[in-house]
Amino acid sequence: MAVALETDGLGRRYLTNWGLRNCSLQVPEGSIAGLVGPNGAGKSTLIRMAAGISTPSEGTVSVFGERVDPNSATFLARVGYLDQLRPFYKHLSVEETLEWGARLNTSWDKASATKWLVDLEIPLDWKISLLSIGQQAQVALAVCMGKSSDLLLLDEPMASLDPLARQGVIQMLLDSVAEKGTTVLLSSHIVSELEPICDYMIILSKSRVQVSAPTDYLLANHHLLVGPHESHTFDSVNVISSKIAGRQATLLVQGDPGGLGPEWQVISPDLQDIVLAYLAKPNAEPFVPSSETSELNEGELS
Amino acid sequence: MTQITWRRYRIRIIALSLYVVALIVFMILTHHAFQDAATVCGRLHIDVNLGRHCNAAASAESHGSLVETAIALLPLFIGFFLGTPMVASELERKTNRLAWSQGITRTKWLVRTWLTLAIPTVVVMSLFALIVQWWATHIVTSISSGGGLIQPAQMLISGVAPIAFALLLLTLGMFIGTTVRRFFSPYATSVVAFVAVLAVMQFVLPSLAAKVVVPTHPFGVTHLPNGLRSRPWFIKSVYRFVPGIHVGNHLRTVGAVLQFCKGNPMCYQAHGLQIVSLYQPASHYWVLQWREAGIYIAATGVLLSLSIWSIRRWSA
Amino acid sequence: MIEFRLDRHTGVPAYRQIIDQVRHAIHLGILRPGDQLPTVREVVRQITINPNTVHRAYRELELQGLTEGRTGSGTFIRHSLSEVSGQQPKLLGQLELWMKRARDAGLEIEAVEALIAEALQSMKEEE
Lengths: 302, 316, 127
Prior knowledge:
The structure holds three protein chains of three kinds. Chain A is α/β, with parallel strands linked by helices. Chain A has helices at residues 43-51, 73-78, 94-104, 110-119, 133-146, 163-180, 191-194, 215-220, 271-280, 291-296, and strands at residues 3-14, 17-28, 32-36, 58-63, 66-67, 79-82, 151-154, 183-187, 200-205, 208-214, 222-228, 238-245, 248-254, 265-267. Chain A folds into two domains: 3-215, P-loop containing nucleotide triphosphate hydrolases (Rossmann fold); 222-285, no CATH class. In chain A, strand 1 (3-14) and strand 2 form a beta hairpin. Chain B has helices spanning 2-40, 48-51, 55-93, 95-99, 106-138, 152-157, 161-179, 186-204, 254-261, 265-270, 285-312, and strands at residues 212-215, 233-241, 273-280. Chain B is mainly alpha-helical.
């Protein structure tokens, strides 16, 4: 499996706080990886280090097999980055911003970037400072997409966008992956939006990785168990979260809950259930299968 | 980056250019006033003190100082309004995160930005230097600076050194913008740094060329050269033993003699002491100018390299 | 041409649903040998799905021998699923007859569905 982004014990410290600690993961090439976690969990820190905007305090981060070097022209040409703050040269117009992008990048698809904005009815001759937040977000995305990169690092690309616009962005990302084999890493707070499109999930909490696995593997190896809350002894499984309501317990478990009595209902969780469960329990055992394990088990998924 | 930099700074560049134009207009308009003042006073005053007796000369002198200060401030404005914001404002607004994730390397980004401002700086300052040269050699020297071009106040604003000085402050401001951000304001730091450079250079400048040493009154021989063009830059007077004289066993150092003689000139002479004047002659004007400019240009190169090094290591 | 639909609440993985829908279409004769499956890009435009998922489903279909990929052209149906496809109208008639008998016996639609589901389940377990 070719790896687009790999980190090994990656960490970043700001004076005494660790923004991210001991982060090890691998995002396969051509996949769409979702990054979720509460604010301050380290999502932006991770994305910034992958993009070369921040340098690690410890550990390594590599893109397409090479250590991230923010001063390498080849690295800069291959990686696209969307910052959470969406900074702009506010006095430039939309058109001028796209021109600037064209001049600074070797491969630039001005036509599709322009079309994207025209379709959204964003006036190209307006100064960026006059646009609404949602429109600015779209322009930021256009600049990112115009660059035709092999790896897209998007920090909350859907924030500030209305539902229709979000759908448009998702569609654009899917098209890019389908046509060019782009690898995408995007962070979002809306898990239900990520579920249909992400084939890889990363859950960060309190600056650490809780989950880093292919989505199918993640879903197949977690189950919701509903049953009477007195009768449970589970050895082979890891209880991630449990909710008690009266006599009924709902547990999210990791692993295969074989050998349960008929009083237990086994339900397939959706991604939201899993994410919420892990976020509620930061000390849960991390779910980070090695790439061999998760590939081998693909065949067992039906 | 060239276009963006130009767009962001064009108003400031135009404002500074207007400042320069205003000064030039003033200098041209007052050109005759200064000359008339000189004639009215009967002779070309070289001594500022004597000039005060003549009203026309006195008012011309104060106008002259005003203009000279305005000219001297120009490099500081360039450093403060163009140099410091170059990188500092990008870091403040985080637009560097956008710029440094496009296809251009940080080195190219910085050099292009710097060139976009450095070239107009050099061009404007060079044209201005020619005007100042004309103004200084024809008029001002007669009154406000008390003599020829080789005076500190004149050295500051005429010749080639100010061009290089402006370039240096531009680059110094940029460098400060790349490094100073967490605890201090880059703008405040720049002002301090610019003034420090000025102070240091005033100190260093007299030593850039070999000083001429001549014995002077009361018991020396030579008089300082005089005349409009040839008045030197008087640096200081010192006591020393007359060269070749045999120093007595009893009072071996200058300090000892001074203490012993307590201000009595005859006593000094008796003990072999003389007063000498150190000065830079007028002929050293261009030597000093080029060496000063050379120092500024070398420093500019160093600061540019340091700035590149600094942003290559920069991390959010 | 087939149009895919995804039901995200069934717990069945998306790639599995695609495979099932192709097989279903072949059964019903909607897709015949020689027909082309939509390209990955077209599927991605129809439904919000990860392209890799589509690739995976198509690969699986090829492994099952139901489709073949022709480089440069796309993915095509190879042959129909059952050689006895002629049996289908007869089988369909028999099924409808049975359903009528179940309704006459007083069974609600849901009970009929449950019976069919149970029979299918035991059939799958046997296979």
